[in-house]
Amino acid sequence: MRGYRADIAFDGYRALPGGALVLVDDGVIVAVEPASAAAPDGCPVTHLPGTALLPGLIDTHVHLCADSSPAALDRVPERSPAELQAVVAASLASHLRAGVTAVRDLGDHHWTVVDLGQPADAPTIVAAGPPLTTPKGHCWSMGGETDGVDDLRRAVRERVERGAAVVKVMASGGAMTPGTDVRDCQFTTDELRVVVDEAHRLGLPVTAHAHPPQAMENALDAGVDGIEHGSCMTPTGFHTPPGLAERIAAAGIYVGPTIGKDPDIAPPPPVQAILARMGVTPESHFAQVAELYRAGVTLVSGVDAGIGPGKRHGLLPYSVAELMQCGVPAAEALASATSAAAHACGLGQRTGRLVVGLDADLLLVDGDPLADITSLLRPRVVVSRGREVDR
User: Fold this and answer.
1) Is the pLDDT of residue 273 over 90?
2) pLDDT tens-place string over residues 155-173
């Protein structure tokens, strides 16, 4: 048994007055006591003055096969299986060092991440396999091309058989794939409903990559469990149609706006070109995310990690901080990367909170993240399923 004590603590939903002492045994949280409580005799306790204790962070949108280099997604198909495995290992290590103890991979390349399983020295992995897309559609090179409803059903069954934990479908085009348009739909509502019905029948959730309002509406009508990006991108900028955000909120659909980037690095040239053509700015994107929040949509943090230098692995604290720039209060922003993220990833009964019986995924950071969100950038101790990470 081992203990972790801090005078400041956040349990995944709210602050714990007076801090907390969390006891860990065999990889599981076995007690959550006030910080003033005594530890059992002989139990070593880590107590670093000035630190806060919270659950390990969860990045809901990563691409572990991409190495965060310029044009990273374009380089993935050129790599050998051994090279891809090395990239995945390095990506996972970057997340752990940053305090991210669980990731959801939504852009696997030909089953590399699914087939990896769950390494003992890595964050908890929720893997989607190659995202479902149309022939030569967004991210087609990852191996998820489908053609017609029968092929969509087959593809969903294949993901279940191979051990994927979620189905990712490209409801619209994307900025990073030449020949696709981020503002165009790739599947009809009926096609998306086939994916959802088959996945739900077999016990898997579905999350949809969707930028334009019509793709978001198609995904909503089809009954998806989550929407990635959800930017309401139109030829003239980010515009949320009246009532759409309220419908998403009423349906209980999680939205991962994939904000969060290195502030010192510009977006990739294809993304810059699209944004310039529409005359949009980061501020206008934040305003659109704020609309979703005010309508009651549950937002979760995810970086789209790995797709480029400005979106490298381990940048999740920036995603949380940018949510606060959208008007999300600190506690809800922290929940977006802990408890809410866990539920969105199907991990709500395993991690994301300081609760007895859950995995011992813990993070100690310098400062108080509820008062200064940048404290997330100063991790001191990271514990993943009870194992302290060598940072």
Assistant:
1) no
2) 999 999 999 999 999 999 9
Mean pLDDT of the chain: 96
Is there a contact between 388 and 381 (Cβ–Cβ < 8 Å)?
yes
Classify strands 57-62 and 100-105 as parallel, antiparallel or unpaired.
parallel
- Residue found by looking up tokens 């309401």 in the block: 232
Q: Tell me the pLDDT tens digit for each residue of 279-288.
A: 778 889 999 9
Instruction: Specify the CATH number of the domain 57-344.
Output: 3.20.20.140
Question: How would you classify the pairing of strands 167-170 and 233-234?
Answer: unpaired
Q: How far apart are CA 47 and CA 391, in angstroms?
A: 17
Please check whether residue 10 is in contact with residue 370, taking contact to mean a CB–CB distance below 8 angstroms: yes
Q: CB-side exposure of 280: number of CA atoms within 13 Å?
A: 21
- 120/104 Cα distance (integer angstroms): 16
The 8-class DSSP code of residue 337 comes to: T
**Residues 314, 94 contacting (CB under 8 angstroms):** yes
Query: 2-55+352-388 maps to which CATH number?
Result: 2.30.40.10
pTM: 0.96
- Is the sign of the CA dihedral 19, 20, 21, 27 positive or negative? negative
Distance (Å, whole) CA 287 – CA 245: 13
* Structural domain boundaries in the chain: 2-55+352-388, 57-344
Half-sphere exposure of 259 (CA within 13 A, CB side): 27
Q: Give the tens place of pLDDT for each residue, 246-265.
A: 999 999 999 999 999 999 88
Contact 285, 292 (CB under 8 A): no
